[in-house]
Design goal:
CATH class of the largest domain: Alpha Beta
Number of domains: 3
Structural class: alpha/beta
Distance between the termini: 28 Å
CATH superfamily of the largest domain: NAD(P)-binding Rossmann-like Domain
CATH topology of the largest domain: Rossmann fold
Shape: elongated
Number of strands: 15
Protein name: XdhC family protein
Largest sheet: 6 strands, parallel
CATH architecture of the largest domain: 3-Layer(aba) Sandwich
Pfam family, one: XdhC_CoxI
């Protein structure tokens, strides 16, 4: 996400065109799911991926035409059956993709480019989940052209007004509640009571995952690097100014020096991951006591189980407050990380981050070769409907 935004910002500053490609529908087995995006630049570079590299070359050829015309379009790739291997791109993924190509041309179409850039800025900085609605097809392109963007469920509604668009807002809320993105057909009331039938892509934008690390020791350095590789927002907290320093954590989004015996005010919620690893018993105890009172996605503590038990013995009041032994809480992980035999700080970091991903996606972390059925659940749209007769 941040790489895409950086690319758009650079194009906006230089006036160079680009195209943002988004998967708006899938059928069968595909490498990426609905909502995956990549940015195609004028010089042929591609930031991100929508297929693992299978179709990006072909997408670039279509993107060049979109850059020149300024008109968005949809692409469809069907890899099912042997025909693809013989005459197509040779992917053999046994699935199909529908991709939306949105032009970004600051020099020729500055208003449209600014609209897309503003929505993507919201995507990167939003403190909570919201939706981006894109008009894909419209029965009245003059009144509501394809490519129209609206941010829904956000304090700042970028891209347009929502007069009479209550149904879109309601469906977007349903998609957010289900953690889904997808297509929907909706009838809108235009001027003079005219009905405009539109196909919308409703993209559910989740808040960027957040990681708070209590402890700025050497083992926290690869954990920060790994989290930033995942494009998470990272906060590092420590009581030692020499450790909690930007030269040691140049990638961290926030570094906080908290005096011994204090817990700094932190914006943590049900989408925040927390790891306690100060290697200081009293500090670990302090942070653990505070985090046990919060509703967070993941709470891990570095060290053997026996040490954690000693920490918990000092926090009896919190046990009573939550009404459940912390070691039995789903969000509580001690010892922290997956059992991969990790020993080095780098291996431990991968172990911890992998367990956080498992907790977020509700997956087991077992080898994929042991999984029965598809790797990803590619389910259909929440809202079934009939497309327009005209092909747009």
């Amino acid at each position: 996400m941040f790489d895409l935004l950086k690319g758009l910002e650079e194009c906006w500053s230089s006036g160079r065109p680009a195209v943002l490609a988004t998967i708006i529908d899938t059928q069968g087995s595909t490498y990426r799911g609905v909502g995956a995006q990549c940015l195609i630049l004028e010089d042929g570079r591609i930031i991100g991926t929508v297929s693992g590299g299978c179709v990006e070359g072909d997408i670039y050829e279509h993107a060049r035409e979109v850059m020149q015309s300024g008109v968005p379009r949809t692409l469809q790739y069907d890899f099912r059956g042997s025909g693809d291997l013989l005459w197509g791109l040779g992917v053999g993924c046994n699935g199909s993709l529908t991709i939306w190509l949105a032009p970004f041309h600051p020099a020729t179409y500055p208003a449209q480019a600014k609209q897309l850039l503003q929505v993507m800025r919201l995507h990167a900085a939003s403190p909570r989940s919201f939706s981006i609605m894109t008009v894909i097809q419209s029965s009245d392109a003059a009144a509501l052209p394809p490519g129209t963007l609206v941010a829904l469920g956000h304090d700042r509604e970028e891209g347009g007004a929502l007069h009479g668009w209550g149904e879109i807002a309601e469906r977007a809320a349903q998609y957010r509640a289900a953690g889904r993105s997808g297509l929907a057909w909706i009838d809108l009331s235009g001027s003079g009571g005219k009905t405009i039938r539109v196909q919308c892509f409703i993209h559910t934008v989740r808040r960027v995952p957040r990681l708070v690390i209590f402890g700025a020791g050497p083992d926290a350095i690869p954990l920060v690097r790994g989290a930033k590789l995942l494009q998470w927002h990272v906060t590092v907290v420590d009581h030692r100014p020499a450790f909690a320093a930007t030269d040691r954590f140049p990638d961290a989004d926030e570094i906080i020096v908290a005096p011994v015996g204090t817990v700094p005010p932190l914006d943590v919620d049900e989408e925040t991951n927390v790891v306690i690893m100060t290697h200081h018993f009293e500090q670990d105890q302090l942070f653990l006591a505070e985090m046990l009172t919060r509703t967070i996605a993941y709470l891990g503590i570095l060290g053997p189980r026996a040490r954690t038990e000693k920490l918990l013995e000092k926090i009896e009041s919190n046990r009573k407050a939550i009404g459940l032994h912390p070691l039995k809480m789903k969000a509580f992980h001690s010892p922290v990380g997956l059992d991969i035999g990790a020993e080095t700080p780098e291996e431990i970091a991968f172990s911890i981050l992998s367990e956080m991903i498992c907790a977020r996606t509700r997956r087991s972390g077992m080898p994929l070769r042991l999984r029965k059925g598809p790797i990803h659940e590619r389910t259909g749209d929440l809202f079934s409907s009939v497309p327009l007769k005209e092909s747009v």
